[in-house]
Design a protein that fits this description.
Two copies of one chain form a homodimer.
Chain A (H helix, E strand, L loop, with lengths): L2 H11 L3 E5 L16 H13 L5 E4 L1 H5 L3 H17 L4 E8 L3 H14 L4 E4 L9 H4 L5 E7 L18 H9 L8 E5 L4 H10 L4 E4 L9 H8 L6 E5 L1 H4 L7 H22 L4
Parallel strand pairs in A: 1-2, 1-8, 2-3, 3-4, 4-5, 5-6, 6-7, 7-8
């Protein structure tokens, strides 16, 4: 999928919502624990309930890996189910990988050949070697951590050489490693005021914005500062949707929450003249 | 395992060798492909052949994940086999993870509770949040990427604020997040001349040194510049040992290669007065 196709998907659903599948066996409704694959069954119901309002899903791999290979099996089933449900849904492996050439190539093979993800999140610390094996896959995306939404993001991401901060250096340098059709950046929504600056240097790239919902951050502010002529935003919500209710009603409430965000997004897309 | 216990293990085996289990289904001897679990069987023979010369093993998770959950199953079996074979062998999950608080906690649970690793490699980009959930596990280690051995390490790791490079900032800042009993750093052996400088600022910590063997780097130089009063080094070799021979003889040749490195290490340990 290229940027134009992603934008088309956003226009069709009037939404730039990404639902984070941070599925935690300790947090899902208790009645699911008696089923043969509680993790997959939870995801399936969440997907069925939210896919009308959602252009992307982002399973966070840590949650599945913490359960060993049975967790990985639930995850593979989830990705296959998403593809069955809607072939061109955008699926992000939130893996935050970052390793050298031959290892990065193994990861690219894992995510793009063995499984069927559209994109993988990557940590930039090791440089070009760790990103290029992903951007060489036609139609697939590397999503590079730039400015994250966690408290200790400031430990290193603001480290400054007098001209720019590390996160700006990361964006500037890594732009050479791909195109606006295969490179995206993670920019935390808690820094919505910084999106305007980021857009000066990176006007064209899609940005994946975590931190709306449970982690705070205003959707209107993000849209106002970060939207470009192809929308250029995927805004993620995880806990605010998938754990909004923890009874047998969870999927219905997840649908409501996703629908509310979709409606807000529709307003912003219209405001920007994109619908 | 704390630093003193790791040093004791080094003294017993007269070796500070770590064998990297970068097990690639496309590179292992062909006769193993007919067995029920070629990856595990390869690892088992490598372990049997090299454990006399080795204090640590470092499976690179990308290689297993690229095979989906069957690869993860082979890996879990490998870790269990290592523990059976020698209970206090030091096992490193070369995962290069780096994620925020709740996700990092899931990863820590995955590596330390669900499986039985002693240490995990971590990328520092997201700061303290991504490391602290690991250092709170008693007897377990976080191994932070500082200066890596790949070509594009220089893309960001040398980014300089006028006082220090990013990799130095990472070491200086992250020292606060743990102790010399649960924090280690990755420092590439291609930069052996820089080890002397690093030792000025970080005299006590263990360093995990990749890049000896197939990736180049001189063991004598690493030892001379990097060794401290508890050895303070784990030197990794992967391809130089596990793929030294690709016939049915592979395990025997792996043993020879590991034995050669052990003998060189014994010389260095004696030179430093540690044996």
């Amino acid at each position: 999928m290229n940027a134009a196709q992603l934008f088309e998907s956003i226009r069709q659903k009037k939404s730039f919502l990404c639902v984070g599948l941070d599925t935690d066996i300790q947090k899902i409704p208790k009645h699911l624990l008696d089923t043969t694959d509680p993790i997959f069954n939870f995801n399936k119901e969440i997907i069925d309930a939210t896919i009308a309002y959602t252009v992307a899903y982002k399973p966070n791999l840590a949650f599945y890996e913490s359960l060993g290979y049975s967790g990985m099996e639930s995850l593979e089933k989830t990705v296959k189910y998403l593809r069955q449900k809607q072939e061109d849904i955008f699926i992000i492996a939130d893996a935050k990988r970052g390793d050298i050439g031959n290892t990065a190539a193994m990861y690219a093979r894992a995510f793009f050949d063995h499984q069927d993800y559209d994109a993988v999140t990557l940590a930039p610390y090791m440089g070009a070697d760790s990103v290029l094996p992903f951007t060489t896959y036609l139609g697939k995306w590397a999503i590079i951590l730039a400015l994250t939404s966690n408290k200790s993001a400031s430990d290193f991401q603001y480290f400054n050489d007098g001209k720019q901060a590390l996160f700006e250096k990361v964006m500037e340098t890594s732009k050479q490693w791909g195109t606006t059709d295969n490179l995206m950046y993670v920019v935390g929504a808690t820094k919505a005021d910084m999106l305007k600056d980021i857009r000066k240097h990176t006007p064209e790239h899609f940005l994946l914005v975590p931190g709306v919902g449970a982690q705070g951050g205003s959707l209107a502010e993000v849209a106002e500062n970060g939207m470009n002529h192809q929308c250029g935003l995927l805004v993620n919500s995880s806990r605010g949707i998938i754990y909004a209710d923890t009874t047998e009603n969870f999927a219905k409430v997840a649908a409501q929450k996703a629908s509310e965000l979709q409606q807000e997004m529709e307003v912003e897309l219209k405001k920007a003249g994109l619908l």
